[in-house]
Structures are given as C-alpha cells and as structure tokens.
C-alpha cells in the first residue's frame, strides 16, 4: 500500500453532508443541462431525425390517447377538489376569527 502525504480521509458524516449539499446537486443539474443541449443541437442539425421523433411521439400519443385524456381529466378533478377544500378551510378560519372577535 502506498503512503500519500497531504491527502486527508473525509469522515463518513462529512461525505454524506457533501453529497446532500447544493453544490453536488447543482453540478448534477448542470451536467444534465449540458447533455440536453448536446442532444438538442444534434436533433436540430438532422431534420429527418426531428421528423422521426415527431412521428414516434405522434404514434404513441394516438395509441395512448384515452389513457392520456383520462389521466389529465383525473388531475383536473383533483385540482378542483383541492381548491374547494382550501376554500372551505379558509371559510372555517374566517368564521373562527369572527367568533373570537365577538
């Protein structure tokens, strides 16, 4: 085993903290953005590739259109329910504050 001078071993607690830090997350996001830029530049340089990707996306959108519509309408219904629930909660809070004022 070689002996290396000047290299410190990082304790496990510090290593876990470094992994959860914003620096590591920012680096990962930056790498993902860079990869996305490379892919998009290749796609825009090859129009047939762009047409092919569009055709594939259209095929799958048509194939799964019923499932897509059902999931979108389900999310919309859940959103409406959430808004109504929050409205009721707000009305309850306002009623409680009026009772305490009286």
Q: What features would you describe in this structure?
A:
The radius of gyration is 27 Å and the shape is elongated. The model has no long low-confidence stretch (mean pLDDT 80). The relative contact order is 0.04. The protein is an all-alpha fold and 102 residues long. It is built from 4 helices and no strands. The chain has helices at residues 12-19, 22-45, 47-63, 65-101.
Pick out its properties.
single chain; 102 residues; mainly alpha; 4 helices; 84% helix; elongated
Integer-rounded radius of gyration: 27 Å
The string of secondary-structure elements, in order, is HHHH
Mean pLDDT: 80
Helix content: over 70%
Please outline what is shown here:
Helix content is 84%, strand content 0%. With 102 residues, it is mainly α.
């Amino acid at each position: 085993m070689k002996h290396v001078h000047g290299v410190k071993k990082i304790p496990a607690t510090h290593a876990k903290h470094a992994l959860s830090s914003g620096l590591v997350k920012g680096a990962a996001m930056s790498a993902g953005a860079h990869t996305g830029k490379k892919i998009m530049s290749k796609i825009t340089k090859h129009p047939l590739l762009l047409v092919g990707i569009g055709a594939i996306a259209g095929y799958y959108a048509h194939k799964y259109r019923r499932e897509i519509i059902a999931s979108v309408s389900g999310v919309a219904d859940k959103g409406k329910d959430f808004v109504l629930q929050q409205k009721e909660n707000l009305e309850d809070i306002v009623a409680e504050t009026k009772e305490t004022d009286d």
